[in-house]
Amino acid sequence: MPYQLDRWQWGGDVREDDLRAEMRSQGLAPFTWHNGPGDHYSLHSRSYTRVIYVLRGSAIFHFPETNEDVMLEPGDRIQIDARTQHAITVGDEGVACLEAAIRKR
Fold first, then answer.
1. pLDDT tens across 45-94, in order?
2. 30, 23 in Cβ contact below 8 A?
3. How many distinct structural domains can be found in the chain?
């Protein structure tokens, strides 16, 4: 599978500071991005593995290789392998995400 999905299981609010600290403890350098309702990223890939947490709102990640559409909501984490083709459609409330790159050395 070209991605790994971890659903939020801890209840309560998703705290950006906690997730940012967790990512930093793993040696990652997280940054935040936002998009408005219905925004769309066309099919693309990255040269590195991406780790993304949804902080607020929702987004659907589309993976044509496996013909899957994966809805992410607050707290959900997805790790997308390098060179994996995917597209993203933002949900009705927009989305805010915390993202970091895992680069091979």
1. 999 999 999 999 999 999 999 999 999 999 999 999 999 999 999 999 99
2. yes
3. 1
Task: Give the residue numbers spanning the domain of 89.
Answer: 3-102
Q: Are 31 and 99 in contact (CB under 8 A)?
A: yes
Nearest to 70 by CA among 61, 79, 81: 61
Domain of residue 43, CATH code = 2.60.120.10
- d(Cα 33, Cα 31) in Å, to the nearest integer? 7
CA distance linking residue 58 with residue 47, whole number of Å: 25
Structure tokens at 25: 């403890």
Tokens of 50: 């991406």
State both tokens at 17: 């500071």
Q: What is the pTM of this model?
A: 0.94
φ, ψ (nearest 5 deg) of residue 88? -135, 135
